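Changelog entry: the Oligosaccharide repeat unit polymerase record was regenerated in this release. Current contents:
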Amino acid sequence: MLIAQNHLQFIIEVAILIHIGILLLFNAIVIPLSMVLFLSLVLTVILAALFGLDTTILFLPFLSHHEFTHPFGPMAVFAWVTLAASASLLNEVEIKSSSIKTLAYVLFFVIAVAGGLMHRSFLLLWFIGWAVGAVMMSKSFKRTSRITPKRIITVIITVLGSFGILELLSRVLSTPVLSPLLRISRLEDYAMPSLSMVIKNTTLWGHVQGSCFWGANCLGGSDGYISLPMNLINSLTLPFPLFAGVLVTKKDIIDYMLPGIFGVAFDFGYGSLILLLTWCMIVICTGFYILRQYRSKRRNGSRRYLGREALLIGALTAFIAQSIVGLFLFNRTINGAAMVTYMVLSALVMAHIISIRRRV
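Regenerated C-alpha cells:
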C-alpha cells in the first residue's frame, strides 16, 4: 500500500481496505437468517447498554463521558433495523417472532432515550433511520405502508416533544448540555461566520492557502477539518495536521457548526464533494437494486438469501440516515470515528453485489 501523503489519501486508502476486507469476508462465509438475528440482537443490546452507561455518567460528578452516539449512532440504527427486518422475515417464513419484536420495541425506546439525552442530533438520526427502515420493510414484506399523514404528524410531535422534555430537564437539573435551545443559539452565533468563510475560500480541490486556522502553514487542502480518528493517525505516526487538545475548538467552526457538504468542500474541494455525493448515490441505488433481487427470489420460494436481505435492509437504512444527517445537517456525524462507521456501512451494502452477479 502506498504511504498516504495527506488526510484525503489516507481516507481513500482506508476506505478501499475496508471495502475489500468486508467483501472478502462477506462472500467467504454463509450468512443464515438465524446468525443475522442473533448478532443484530447482541449488537443492539450492547449499544443500548453502552449509550445508557455513557448517559448515566453524564449526570455523575468526577466522571467523564465519551459521547459514543457520534461514532456508534449509525451502527445502532443498523443493528436495530437489521433486528426488526430479521423478525419480519421470520414471519414471512411462518415462524413466530412476537417476543423478538417486543424486545426490539423496548430496545428502540432505550436507545432513543439514552442517545437523545447525550446528543440531540442523535434523535434526528434515530427517527430518520426508523422512518427509512419502516418504508423499506413495508415495501419488502407486502405490508400496508405505515407512513401515513397521521403517523407523520405523530412522529413530528414526538420529536418536538422529546426536544421539549430535554429543554425542561436542562433547566430543572441546571444542566445546559441537555438544552436544544443552547445548540440553536450557538448555531446562530457561529454558523453564519463559518459558512461565510467556507463559501469565500473553497476551491475545486481544497481551499485558498492561508484561509484555514494554520495560517502560513495552511496546506490549501487536507488541513485536518475532515479526518479519520486521531488515535489511528497518531498510532501510524503520520505527519498530518491535527486539531488536538484545546485546538479542537478551532475545528468546531466547521465540524460542529456546519453540514458535512460544507466541511468536505472546504477541506477537500468541490471536486471531492461531487465525487462523494456520486458515491453515495451509487451505494444507495446499488442497495435498492440488490434488495429487489433478494425480494424477488424470496417471493419465488427461495430462502437462501434471507439473512443477506435482513443485513442489507439494516445497512442501507443506516447508510441513508447517516448520509442525510452527516452531509446535510451535522458534519460531525460523518467525521472522525463516525467516518469509519460510514465506510463500514457502505461496504456492507456494496459487498452484496459480487454475490448477486455470481449467483444470479
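The chain has 14 helices and two strands.
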